[in-house]
């Protein structure tokens, strides 16, 4: 495995990394490896805008191709302002 040395990390950043690692029950070194792994994975995903991301979240949900919307005959629609 490769190694990397990062110099001149701000004290505040180091403290926050230590706290984060402690919350996850691992060493600071393991925490940094996990953070770097996640960032690289995100870059591998195909890019897209907000609409593309929302569409991906809901893909496969709802009507299937060729499926029709059922009619709601006989149902009375009430205004939310009526009592």
From TrEMBL:
Q: Which residues belong to the signal peptide in this entry?
A: none
Q: Spell out the Gene3D superfamilies in the cross-references.
A: Met repressor-like
Q: Pfam families attached here?
A: FitA-like_RHH
On the tree of life, the source organism's domain of life is: Bacteria
Give every Antitoxin FitA-like ribbon-helix-helix domain span: 2-40
Q: What is this protein called?
A: Antitoxin FitA-like ribbon-helix-helix domain-containing protein
Q: Which organism is it from?
A: Methylobacterium isbiliense
